[in-house]
């Protein structure tokens, strides 16, 4: 099985590096005229994925928007995940899990791999309980050719106080986490490693040195659109990670539904913008 990095690089070249966020919030369901229940979730996700077709490299369902409806919502996540994979896209489950090592084993089994509960190709994690505690997720990702994205610098201002706090050696928490990711990836070999980083597209242009500490990592950059960042900025701020950035857009695309044409137009626009901002020329036409 090709690694997540290999599969992403291939798809980004053919489909663009855009990551489409699948966030079926109560608010969006309401705007679409759907009921806030499992059937509403299914119709919402089905419509978004029909519009995405084979245009998108990565789809990122945000787990909280499914979990909020309990087991029925989680069942819809599994349905969406299967559809994402059947469309040849990579499924990045945005779960932001983080716990002691023994418990991480449970999350790893639930999230990663075709035979798992949710069948993700990759997952987001939080290192608040320690980078080392995430090891079971890393090990499972290596075994399965999956990916793990560790939150380093989040897109929301609320994260600053915690992420900018300093270790005794002077590095911020975010910098130290970036260094941990780099050391782990380097220990696995040269090239882009199994560990990616989440760095918000909204980060201050003066704070982009964090990107230089992640030379062997894919970088998930949420915050484009509704949170105020735009694709051109992503291209500038993340220039040193060219070809390794997944700019992520949720509401700015999803608000164009339920019209399939509206959704598809928005996906096409962000896809082209992501291509020109984050990557070289499109290498192949989309089939
Ligand atoms: O891991 C994420 O995707 C994430 C990290 C972060 O720092 N900020 C952030 O907004 N996200 C997620 O990215 C999505 C952003 O949605 P929009 O602001 O609507 O594009 C949401 O699903 C968030 O949970």
UniProtKB/TrEMBL annotation:
Domain Orotidine 5'-phosphate decarboxylase: 17-266
Catalytic activity line of the entry: orotidine 5'-phosphate + H(+) = UMP + CO2
Family indicated by similarity: Belongs to the OMP decarboxylase family. Type 2 subfamily.
Listed GO MF terms: orotidine-5'-phosphate decarboxylase activity
Pathway where this protein functions: Pyrimidine metabolism; UMP biosynthesis via de novo pathway; UMP from orotate: step 2/2
GO biological process terms held by the UniProt record: 'de novo' pyrimidine nucleobase biosynthetic process; 'de novo' UMP biosynthetic process
Matches recorded under InterPro entries: Aldolase_TIM (IPR013785), OMPdecase_type-2 (IPR011995), OMPdeCOase_dom (IPR001754), RibuloseP-bd_barrel (IPR011060)
Uppermost EC category: lyase
Keyword Isomerase set for record: no
Keyword Lyase belongs to the record: yes
TM regions (residue ranges): none
Protein name in the entry: Orotidine-5'-phosphate decarboxylase
Gene3D superfamilies found in the cross-reference section: Aldolase class I
Lineage start: Bacteria, Pseudomonadati, Pseudomonadota, Alphaproteobacteria, Hyphomicrobiales
Enzyme Commission number(s): 4.1.1.23
Organism: Microvirga lotononidis
Keywords: Decarboxylase, Lyase, Pyrimidine biosynthesis
């Amino acid at each position: 099985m090709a690694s997540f990095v290999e599969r992403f690089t291939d798809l980004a070249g053919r489909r663009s590096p855009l990551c489409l966020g699948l966030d079926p919030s109560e608010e969006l369901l309401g705007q679409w005229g759907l009921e806030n229940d499992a059937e509403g979730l299914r119709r919402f996700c089905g419509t978004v994925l029909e519009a995405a077709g084979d245009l998108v490299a990565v789809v990122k369902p945000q787990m909280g928007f499914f979990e909020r409806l309990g087991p029925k919502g989680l069942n819809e996540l599994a349905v969406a995940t299967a559809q994402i994979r059947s469309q040849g896209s990579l499924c990045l489950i945005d779960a932001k899990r983080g716990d002691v090592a023994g418990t991480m084993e449970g999350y790893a089994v639930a999230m990663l791999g075709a035979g798992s509960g949710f069948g993700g190709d990759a997952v987001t994690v939080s290192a608040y309980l320690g980078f080392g505690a995430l090891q079971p997720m890393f090990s499972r990702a290596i075994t399965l050719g999956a990916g793990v994205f560790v939150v380093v610098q989040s897109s929301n201002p609320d994260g600053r106080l915690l992420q900018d706090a300093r270790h005794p050696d002077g590095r911020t928490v975010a910098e130290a986490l970036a260094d941990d990711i780099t050391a782990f990836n380097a220990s696995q070999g040269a090239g882009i490693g199994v560990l990616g980083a989440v760095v918000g597209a909204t980060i201050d242009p003066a704070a982009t040195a964090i990107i230089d500490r992640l030379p062997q990592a894919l970088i998930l950059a949420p915050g484009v659109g509704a949170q105020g960042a735009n694709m051109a900025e992503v291209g500038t701020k993340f220039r040193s990670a060219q070809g390794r950035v997944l700019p992520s857009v949720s509401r700015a695309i999803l608000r164009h539904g339920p019209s399939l044409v509206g959704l598809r137009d928005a996906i096409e626009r962000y896809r082209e913008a992501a291509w020109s901002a984050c990557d070289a020329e499109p290498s192949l036409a989309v089939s």
